[in-house]
Specification:
The complex is a heterodimer of chains A (780) and B (265). Chain A is α+β, with helices and mostly antiparallel strands and 780 residues long. Chain A has 3 domains: 31-139 and 201-254 and 259-292, Aldehyde Oxidoreductase, domain 3; 379-463 and 635-779, 2-Layer Sandwich (Aldehyde Oxidoreductase, domain 4), CATH 3.30.365; 483-628, Aldehyde Oxidoreductase, domain 4 (2-Layer Sandwich). Chain A is built from 19 helices and 28 strands. In chain A, the strands form 7 sheets. In chain A, strands 3-5-1-12-9-10-11 form a 7-stranded mixed beta sheet, with helices on both faces. A 5-stranded mixed beta sheet of chain A has the order 7-15-14-13-8, sandwiched between helices. A 4-stranded mixed beta sheet of chain A has the order 18-26-27-28, with helices on both faces. In chain A, helix 9 crosses helix 10 (397-404), helix 14 packs parallel to helix 15 (549-576) and helix 17 (670-690) packs across helix 18. Chain B is of the alpha+beta class and 265 residues long. Chain B folds into 3 domains: 5-50, Uridine Diphospho-n-acetylenolpyruvylglucosamine Reductase, domain 2 (2-Layer Sandwich), CATH 3.30.43.10; 55-166, Uridine Diphospho-n-acetylenolpyruvylglucosamine Reductase, domain 3 (2-Layer Sandwich); 170-264, CO dehydrogenase flavoprotein, C-terminal domain (Enolase-like, domain 1, 2-Layer Sandwich). A 5-stranded antiparallel beta sheet of chain B has the order 4-5-8-6-7. A 4-stranded antiparallel beta sheet of chain B has the order 9-10-11-12, sandwiched between helices. Chain B has a 3-stranded parallel beta sheet with strand order 1-3-2, covered by helices on one side. The longest helix of chain B is centred in the last third of the chain and has 19 residues, at 246-264. The radius of gyration of chain B is 18 Å and the shape is globular. The termini of chain B are far apart. The chains are: A alpha+beta (780), B alpha+beta (265). Bound molecules: flavin-adenine dinucleotide (FAD). The site of flavin-adenine dinucleotide has 32 residues of chain B, from strand 2, helix 2, helix 6 and helix 7.
């Protein structure tokens, strides 16, 4: 691997600028003449707009302009769309309501944008925003996903009767029903997956700059996928044609999914820049982030799992209501369907599965993919049910899982996915050993002596990553392909730029992608620069989400590197008068295998560009591009074990130990991978214990600041025990599965299983706050 | 935040004078409550008069068991004073558990009690210690000072200059923090000198900080956690919000009181 190649714990190249505060984020961008924007937002969760009077605001000091939805519509700016078509069970297409970038006739959640105010300073814009008079006729509100389907619930979008977006199914319903009917034991549960606010450290921002002389737009924005932003803004929102629109996502401070989507603000800033003739910058404050970033999860599910007399699962039936909020965000329809129900087989042999998902509108912030996206919801349903079934059946949760594990690969599940490889038992064993599972009863007894209730819980997860084979997702309704692109540019001195269509917003691509190149060519990672996040620099690419940058993004780099190597070898063979088949690239040298005839990598590069002596007919230069379209999803899997102590007097839960045993396939940089697991597990523990999103009956978000919304802090977390059991992914060249989401997917059920084990009451919802646990202890 | 002006006062008199000439002025100390409120545009003073640099309002002086803490003393200073910890460990430990390090290094005892947040920690200590609140106009007994949620006996322009109390023989503070804000969901300060026991509760009461008199009399004759068994605060007088029901808070009050007694020893 070399000291900087694949598998090396190289310190992150990007850390210096981030740790010293020298990152360059959208907020740091300055364009001459730039003005500041503030959005006027709806204070009501549901209301008709009777009129908007901007005259007082326009007259305020420093104000350049105040623009509202009618003007935006007059200029032909389109509505926001969901880019994944889902059909209901009856074959009808999903009922997508209109989402105007600036609401015109109706607002549907607190925070809905109504107008934009542009002024010299942000304070002036804010002052003027308060002076915009919007006359509302307040309508009844519904925020709960089950209530919104009931008769008489307020109608949110005219074209989604009863607030139902789709009623979708996957698997065989009849076969599943009959398997359950014949089961020796059926475990039934009702499971809530709590709504989460993503809380990226950097709030969303946009700077729109229209250059009238060039008739060209530039948009700096906090995006995980700038090319997708450009595509959508030009193809659907009619902001500008692609060749006249440059989207730059500079340093981006975390996304977790919430920065995949194209939001109203970047569209409006671009349009407003043309309208007013000044560059327009908007930066969300934390309250806006809470109110308007796409939230995550928010499912209510009924599940039935049937077992035969030998404790083998015979059938699984799941009925889920997914709350998509007030509007359908860009990939919102895919998250509770193809990213959720296709994982319902988990790590287990389940012959019959049926999943039904009803997606609904409510008067809440839009909901879309958030770290894990659908897979945490699936894992939570399955792993809470498995643990509960084990308790009901009176056998060890570990042994019930072991008895049902898939052991032969490839494995076709009843819900589309085809697992290429895995060794689930290896992770189960590793986790149990690391946690000293067998020693638990003694620890429980010891804790009891101190007045504490100790519990242990497990979760075996699988996820589908490496998103995604374009043809497959196309057949399932995706509006885009999910390949990735790369270009490897070798400079005349042998240094390299890699242009990647994936985007780094915390993942460490500048390091890991360079490690790949270093591994192949034997040159230092310092000689390799990774270029991303700018549509003018980088060829079309699909961005970063779904743990895809390694499995898909790096595979594209491998393909481009293959081409570069081939050409380099041809040049070297020509110069060294050797057979091309005998040329190898090692330690920065291009040499004839088994001889001391060699050229430095830089010499080959220089020759490619001087072109004084190239093989006949060869073009000068050394630069190759590639597109990689994955053949399958990848399937990271693992086993997590959580051990807790509950203080029965207060209900406070302390996590005593947390073990993560993961199979991510091959690993490029173990340090970065461990960091991804730590962060993911912290988020999962946050969901399980602390993070509750609460809307009141009027649709006001009560948890709109850190005084009320509790993010996990270091003191809430134990030191994690992390290990890896590796089976190589069989479908991509590096054998990588991906690691970005696992921690958030696998951990919540392990935590809740541990608490419910401790307190002897299975009736507990997330977040398991001290109050809820205390009440559950007393009800046990 | 709306536009405002800032004045750094060098003396109590200067601060009071500045306040007299400002139209809608406000004193600012650590700014940990006031500045976030202004940022959310819920307060819009046209002048901020900073008390934090007034020499007379800073520092801790201890004379035997008599303690005086200047109003502009930060929570971090109270938490890290070894002399204070020696005579009155309960208050030093209380200060060390307020918010986070940032808040502790900026926020002041005067600002905390002037604000009288129903979930703030210091008001419980002041009540249980029978402290005197010194202002530029008078001295107010803690029992008369706290007048319900965010309400105090202070007049508009009155400045708290210091608090003083006689350290009890034993004292301790036990707090169950709200995991998000770190303010108290229930915090109980217990102080004992001879048979005189005071139990003050913050974070839980509907009207802010209060003394749990039933517990005080039970503890007067038997200063042990077990003395509280069978007692309960009135659930009807407890706060109920998204973080904790009245029932839960009532439970926490009792548990925290028992823990404080155990710690006071
Ligand atoms: C994240 C966070 C967590 C917190 N956690 C806790 C906690 O766990 N426990 C807790 O008790 N508190 C907590 N606080 C509040 C903190 O202790 C504040 O310091 C305190 O409430 C106010 O003190 P200050 O010096 O910052 O006052 P400021 O914010 O400057 O002022 C508050 C009010 O008091 C007035 N005032 C200030 N000084 C005087 C004076 N000397 N005389 C008269 N009036 C005065 C001001 O005019 C203003 O109205 C927290 C605050 C934050 C931001």
């Amino acid at each position: 691997m070399g000291i900087e190649g694949i598998g090396a714990r190289v310190a992150r190249k990007e850390d210096k600028r981030f740790i010293t505060g020298k990152g360059r984020f959208t907020e740091d961008m300055v364009v001459p003449g730039m003005k500041q924007a503030v959005f006027v937002r709806s204070p009501h969760a549901h209301a008709n707009i009777k009129g908007i009077d901007v005259s007082a605001a326009k007259a305020m000091p420093g104000v350049i302009d105040v623009l509202a939805g009618d003007e935006l519509a007059e200029d032909g700016i389109g509505s926001l769309i969901c880019g994944w078509m889902i059909h209901s069970r009856d074959g009808s297409p999903m009922n997508m309501g209109e989402w105007r970038p600036l609401a015109q006739s109706k607002v549907r959640y607190v925070g809905d944008a109504v107008a934009i105010v542009i002024a010299d300073t942000r304070a002036q814009a804010r002052d003027a925003a308060e002076a915009v008079e919007v006359e509302y006729k307040v309508l009844p509100v519904v925020t709960d996903p089950a209530e919104t389907l009931q008769d008489g619930a307020p109608q949110i979008h005219d074209n989604a009767p009863g607030n139902l977006i789709f009623n979708w199914g996957i698997g065989e319903e009849e076969a599943t029903d009959s398997a359950l009917a014949g089961a020796a034991h059926v475990t039934e549960m009702e499971i809530v997956n709590n709504r989460l606010v993503p809380n990226a450290m950097e709030p969303r921002a946009a700077l729109g700059h229209y250059d009238a002389a060039e008739d060209h737009y530039t948009c700096w924005t906090t995006s995980q996928n700038p090319h997708v932003a450009r595509l959508v803004m030009s193809a659907f929102y009619n902001v500008a044609p692609e060749n006249k629109l440059r989207v730059i996502a500079p340093d981006v401070g975390g996304g977790f999914g919430s920065k995949i989507y194209i939001y109203p603000e970047e569209i409006v800033c671009l349009w407003a820049s043309k309208k007013t003739g000044v560059p327009v910058k908007w930066v969300a404050d934390r309250t806006e982030a809470f109110l308007t970033d796409a939230h995550g999860r928010d499912h209510v599910t009924k599940v039935k799992m049937g077992f035969d007399a030998d404790n083998r699962i015979v059938g699984l039936k799941v009925d889920t209501i997914a709350n998509l909020g007030a509007y359908m965000s860009l990939f919102s329809s895919a998250t509770p369907t193809y990213l959720y129900a296709t994982l319902l087989s988990g790590q287990y042999n389940i012959p019959n599965i049926y999943g039904n998902v009803r997606a609904v509108y409510t008067n809440t912030a839009p909901v879309d993919a958030y770290r894990g996206a659908g897979r945490p919801e699936a894992t939570y349903v399955l792993e809470r049910t498995m643990e509960t079934a084990a308790r009901e059946l009176g056998i060890s949760p570990a042994e019930l899982r072991r008895a049902n594990l898939i052991r032969e690969f490839p494995h076709q599940t009843p819900v589309i996915m085809n697992y290429d490889t895995g060794d689930f038992e290896a992770s189960l064993n590793a986790a149990m050993k690391a946690a000293d599972y067998d020693g638990f009863p003694a620890r429980k007894a010891e804790a009891e002596g101190r007045g504490k209730k100790r519990g242990i819980g497990m979760s075996c997860y699988i996820e589908a990553c490496g998103i995604a084979p374009s043809q497959a997702v196309g057949s399932l309704g995706a509006g885009v392909g999910l390949w990735e692109s790369a270009e490897v540019r070798v400079n005349a001195v042998g240094t390299i730029e890699v242009l990647t269509g994936s985007h780094s917003h915390g993942q460490g691509h500048e390091t890991t992608f360079a490690q790949l190149v270093s591994d192949r060519l034997g040159i230092p990672i310092d000689n390799v620069s990774i270029v991303h996040g700018d549509t003018d620099k980088v060829q079309m690419g699909m961005g970063t989400y779904g743990s895809r940058s390694g499995a898909v993004g790096m595979s594209a780099i491998v393909k481009a590197l293959d081409k570069v190597e081939k050409k380099a070898k041809m040049i070297a063979a020509h110069l060294l008068e050797a057979d091309e088949a005998d040329i190898v690239i090692e330690n920065g040298q291009v040499k004839v295998a088994g001889t001391d005839k060699a050229l430095g990598w830089h010499e080959v590069a220089l020759n490619a560009y001087t072109a004084h002596n190239l093989p006949g007919g060869m073009e000068p230069g050394l630069k190759e591009g590639a597109f990689y379209d994955p053949a399958n999803f990848t399937f990271p899997a693992g086993c997590y074990i959580c051990e807790v102590e509950v203080d029965p007097q207060t209900g406070k839960t302390e996590i005593i130990q947390f073990v993560a045993a993961d199979d991510f396939g091959n690993i490029i940089n173990p340090m970065i991978v461990e960091g991804q697991v730590h962060g993911g597990v912290a988020q999962g523990i946050g969901q399980a214990l602390l993070e509750g999103t609460v809307y009141d009956e009027g649709g006001q978000l009560l948890t709109a600041s850190y005084m009320d919304y509790c993010m996990p802090r270091a003191g809430d977390l134990p030191s994690f025990q992390v290990s890896h059991q590796t089976t190589e992914c069989t479908t991509n060249p590096l054998g990588i599965k991906g690691c970005g989401e696992a921690g958030a997917i696998g951990s919540p059920p392990a935590v809740i299983n541990a608490i419910t084990d401790a307190i002897g009451n299975n009736n507990l919802t997330m977040p398991a706050t001290s109050q809820k646990v205390w009440a559950a202890v007393n009800a046990a | 935040m709306y536009e405002t002006s800032y004045h750094r006062a060098e003396s109590v008199e200067e601060a009071a004078k500045k306040m007299g000439t400002a139209e809608g002025g406000k004193y600012v100390a650590g700014g940990q409550t006031l500045i976030p409120t202004m940022k959310q545009r819920l307060a819009s003073p046209d002048a901020l008069i900073d008390l934090r640099h007034i020499p007379d309002m800073k520092g801790i002086s201890i004379n035997g068991k008599d303690v005086r803490i200047g109003a502009a003393t930060t929570h971090a200073e109270v938490a890290s004073s070894a002399d204070l910890d020696a005579v009155c460990p309960g208050i030093a430990s209380l200060a060390g558990h307020i918010g986070d390090p940032h808040v502790r290094h900026m926020g002041t005892i005067g600002g905390s009690i002037a604000n009288n947040d129903p979930a703030a920690d210091y008001p419980a200590a002041m009540l249980a210690l029978g402290a005197a609140i010194h202002t530029n106009k008078r001295e107010i007994a803690a029992g008369d000072f706290f007048a319900g949620m965010f309400e105090t006996a202070l007049e508009e322009d009155e400045i708290i200059t210091a608090v003083s109390f006689t350290a009890p023989e034993k004292c301790a503070y036990s707090k169950f923090p709200n995991p998000a804000s770190r303010y108290a969901m229930a915090g109980v300060f217990v102080a004992r000198t001879g048979d005189d026991v005071r139990v003050a509760v913050t974070g839980a009461g509907m009207d802010g900080v209060f003394r749990w008199e039933e517990a005080e009399s039970a503890l007067g004759s038997n200063f042990a956690a077990s003395a509280l068994e069978g007692l309960a605060v009135n659930e009807g007088e407890m706060l109920s919000d998204i973080h904790g029901s009245a029932e839960y808070r009532a439970n926490l009050v009792k548990v925290m009181a028992m823990r404080a007694i155990a710690e006071a020893g």
